[in-house]
UniProtKB/TrEMBL annotation:
This is Pyridoxal-phosphate dependent enzyme. The active site is at S68. InterPro entries: ACCD_DCysDesulf, TrpB-like_PALP, TrpB-like_PALP_sf. Its cofactor is pyridoxal 5'-phosphate. It comes from the Bacteria. Belongs to the ACC deaminase/D-cysteine desulfhydrase family. It comes from Hufsiella ginkgonis. The lineage of its organism: Bacteria, Pseudomonadati, Bacteroidota, Sphingobacteriia, Sphingobacteriales.
């Protein structure tokens, strides 16, 4: 059976900005689900892997950038549940922590020019069209199975949060979470923080995956210059937050997410005594891609 025990406690966040504004802020530690099948990546893979098993496909083929948390998660999950795995990596061959982890977990890596990377189905057909075991998993694990897995997060939440915050890449996780809350009749307000520049387009791009009309809030102003950009203000925030709470945020997703919540708190966008929940979607290998951005000491 393809399953993992989901260990994801909800912890209070004791951070001065939130205390000053008399907010009760909590964080859901999906980053603790698994060290490598981390955060939303297990939720996104769960039903995808079960479908592969049902269809008796033993070779997972997927796609990602050189720092893709999805590639690492797929490589590890494949090894754990007895699949072979191949990852198409966007761009020229390089070595880094994420790709080394992929290799350690037995994933075959195929570096692919940015141009041919655009047509993933063509790449799959070209390399594995004759492989009866081949199972296509889209970039980031996106798809209906992923949305279904992410909806289960809603089952694990107390009912009394006023606001729930989620980082968005493709928005698949957010779509699942919105559906989960909606189907369970929850009244929390869902806030999405896109980490890509084109984030304001997000509700539109995920609407077809939703079980109703999106009624959350989108905060497109926290991308810090675009995907995987980590200017000093973001690095400084991650360091300050880490030093104050013992919780590690990644620079690509959760750092921007928690920065956004703290910034909105400073700007009095929540009422005193409201209860806020931040989803920590994992991704901590991202730190290794930004080591130089954390090379200064914070002076307090
Ligand atoms: C992949 C990832 C996301 C983005 O998830 P989407 O479903 O693509 O929006 C968010 N946070 C972390 C840590 C991730 O690794």
């Amino acid at each position: 059976m393809i399953t993992l025990p989901v260990y994801s406690p909800v912890e209070p966040v004791l951070y001065p900005v939130f205390a000053e504004k008399q907010l009760r802020v909590f964080i859901k530690r999906d980053d603790l689900i698994h060290p490598y099948i981390s955060g939303n990546k297990w939720r996104k893979l769960k039903y995808t892997l079960r479908r592969a098993e049902q269809e008796q496909k033993r070779h997972l083929v997927t796609f990602g950038g050189a720092w893709s948390n999805h590639l690492v998660a797929t490589a590890c999950a494949a090894a754990k549940f007895g699949f072979k795995s191949t990852g198409f990596v966007r761009g020229e061959e390089i070595q880094n922590l994420a790709l080394t982890l992929c290799r350690i977990f037995g994933m075959q890596l195929i570096f692919t020019s940015r141009e041919s990377y655009r047509d993933k189905q063509a790449l799959f057909n070209q390399h594995f069209g004759n492989d009866s075991q081949g199972f296509f998993i889209d970039e980031g694990g996106a798809g209906p199975d992923a949305v279904k897995g992410c909806a289960e997060l809603a089952d694990e939440l107390a009912t009394d949060f006023d606001h729930v915050f989620c980082a968005c890449g493709t928005g698949t996780t957010a779509a699942g979470l919105w559906n989960g809350l909606h189907l369970r009749g929850r009244s929390h307000t869902l806030h999405l923080v896109p980490v890509l520049k084109e984030g304001e387009r997000l509700p539109g791009t995920i609407q077809h995956q939703l079980t109703g009309k999106f009624d959350g809030h989108i905060h497109p102003g926290y991308h810090f210059g675009g995907y995987a950009k980590c200017p000093p203000s973001l690095a400084a925030f991650i360091m300050d937050f880490g030093a104050a709470t013992g919780i590690l945020l990644d620079p690509v997703y959760t750092g921007k997410l928690v920065y956004a919540v703290a910034d909105m708190a400073v700007k009095n966008q929540f009422k005193p005594h409201q209860k806020l929940l931040i989803i920590h979607s994992g991704g901590l290998t991202g730190i290794a891609g930004k080591l130089n951005d954390f090379s200064f000491n914070l002076i307090s």
